[in-house]
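Input record, target 12 of the design panel.
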């Protein structure tokens, strides 16, 4: 895989595929972590005299223009962070984009409008997707892939455009791969996997693939309920589908057979809903009918902290509870504090987890690596091929 040092970029149009899929509220960016992660690549290319054409998606607008998902606010924030003007093109490959690109001088930057406003970006038909990829590639002389969080998607800007232009990986992709390789190639033991969050089906495959490599798996958040249900504990109104419970039961058996510990919460904070006003209480592993498990309890925090204290490598994906609500943020905050204070090489994986630690007052440099990739990181750790990486590895 080539890097940007392998490209002669001076005076040339460089299409940089980043991931600016940032959380928004009422048109305001609530966490700019993914924008900040792109700065080293963009600054380096601009300083070397590239004419930068930056592109990204935001949300799922369904292949049509929806101002709710416009990247215009991102252009403003990117300009502030870079300390230089970032122009904004009001379309992706249309007249606005073509005019903006034609007027670029070396060191200039333009951000195109949301790629997913065009149905060709995500079309499963190779011909339709290829037509959009050809138009996008026509705006540039070179391509740099730096949107790691989108690398698991077989989309035009991620997979098809690199086949049409000389290409290389940006600094963010290199950093992500270096971190993930430390998790999969001779990681320092003991190796602890911490899983939480709500996307249960995405993470069960990670446990299965890493069972023979990790020493302990700590499970919190919504992830815990299929496992608790598999052990016969009532989970109340907490989500746990029959398929998830069956998979969790199989994983518990496999882990026991090879000597890997899967550690589940010993207590939970429960309530009828995730609001600060909702009456809450701490229960053991059994969630009463009609209630939701919304955070790990204080005993579980101590239990998890004890395991993490002696760890050599940690991968953490997914909050321990509904961290956005103060009443249910304690578990996530305390696990983050333990990891920030520990000596293990820690990778915080996934956009939600990165947003969680920043929302709770932690900074990225308190951890070994804070990944921008949620699904991409998980699929890599499952041992699956990422189309975006495959495209960058092609000659």
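The sequence produced for target 12 reads:
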């Amino acid at each position: 895989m080539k890097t940007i040092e392998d490209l002669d970029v001076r005076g040339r149009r460089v299409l940089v595929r980043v991931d600016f899929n940032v959380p928004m509220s009422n048109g305001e960016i609530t966490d700019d972590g993914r924008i900040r992660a792109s700065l080293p690549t963009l600054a380096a290319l601009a300083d070397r005299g590239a004419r930068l054409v930056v592109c990204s998606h935001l949300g799922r607008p369904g292949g049509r223009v929806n101002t709710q998902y416009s990247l215009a606010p991102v252009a403003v924030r990117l300009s502030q962070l870079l300390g230089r003007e970032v122009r904004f093109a009001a379309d992706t490959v249309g007249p606005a984009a073509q005019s903006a690109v034609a007027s670029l001088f070396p060191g200039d930057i333009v951000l195109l409008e949301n790629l997913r406003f065009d149905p060709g970006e995500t079309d499963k038909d190779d011909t339709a997707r290829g037509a959009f990829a050809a138009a996008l590639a026509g705006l540039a002389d070179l391509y740099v892939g730096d949107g790691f969080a989108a690398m698991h998607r077989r989309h035009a800007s991620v997979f098809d455009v690199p086949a049409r232009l000389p290409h290389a990986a940006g600094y963010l992709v290199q950093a992500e791969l270096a971190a993930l390789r430390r998790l999969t190639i001779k990681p320092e033991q003991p190796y602890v996997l911490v899983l939480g969050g709500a996307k249960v089906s995405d993470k069960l495959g990670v446990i299965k693939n890493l069972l023979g490599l990790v020493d302990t798996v700590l499970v919190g958040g919504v992830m815990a309920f299929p496992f608790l249900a598999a052990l016969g504990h009532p989970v109340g109104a907490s989500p746990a589908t029959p398929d998830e419970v069956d998979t969790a039961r199989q994983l518990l058996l496999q882990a026991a057979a090879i000597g890997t510990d899967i550690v589940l919460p010993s207590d939970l904070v429960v309530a009828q809903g995730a609001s600060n006003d909702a009456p809450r209480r701490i229960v053991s592993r059994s969630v009463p009918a009609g209630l939701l498990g919304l955070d790990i309890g204080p005993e579980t925090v101590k239990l998890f902290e004890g395991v993490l204290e002696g760890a050599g490598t940690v991968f953490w994906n997914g909050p321990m509870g509904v961290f956005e609500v103060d009443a249910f943020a304690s578990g996530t905050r305390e696990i983050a504090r333990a990891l920030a204070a520990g000596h293990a090489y820690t990778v915080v994986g996934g956009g939600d987890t990165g947003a969680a630690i920043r929302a709770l007052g932690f900074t990225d440099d308190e951890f070994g690596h804070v990944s921008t990739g949620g699904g991409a990181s998980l699929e890599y750790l499952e041992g699956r091929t990422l189309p975006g990486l495959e495209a960058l590895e092609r000659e």
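The chain has 14 helices and 17 strands.
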